[in-house]
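MOLECULE: protein
FOLLOWS: sequence and fold
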Amino acid sequence: MKRALFIFVLAFLTFVAPAVKADPPEQFSSAEVVGAGHRFFGGVSSGLAKAVEYAAGQWGQPTAYILGEEGSGAFVGGLRYGEGRLIQKNGPELKIYWQGPSLGFDFGGNGDRVMMLVYQMNDPHQLLQRFVGISGSAYFIGGVGITALGQGAITVAPIRSGVGARLGANLGYLKFTDTPTWNPF
């Protein structure tokens, strides 16, 4: 009898209770992202525009982006550290930090200005985790590059422009935090 009552109540709530559905996050257009990138990067306009066009073709329009700076170095194993501001369409700007190890055929070091396009993020706290990906670098004095990192449905596409001397490919992850740390793991 109790089981039948439970099933009846559950069925009643399923049909009568209003469905709670979260509104999808607002997205940035390619023009908005390129404009923010031009203001942030300055003179690397054509490389930035091509990287944003490529990202839009792969993943659509971003729900947020990060503007920041990072430094990295590698000799087979590598480390990367950065900090920036997470910018959402109708949300507050938040300070964000990232760090992570890498392993692969990778040698050298570089310092970059970074714009990370974030896709399918509904809440900024979803970013506070590890995002895995494969990265490649070819810097001799300077360069522009884009990679992709993923975790579940969320994709982060860092666009880097900087200086250094680095060559290689690696597998690694970035761990995003809301406080700075030296621990890349």
User: Anything to note?
Assistant: Residues 2-16 form the longest helix (15 residues). The CA atoms of residues 28 and 104 lie 34 Å apart. Strands lie at 64-88, 94-119, 130-146, 149-151, 154-177.
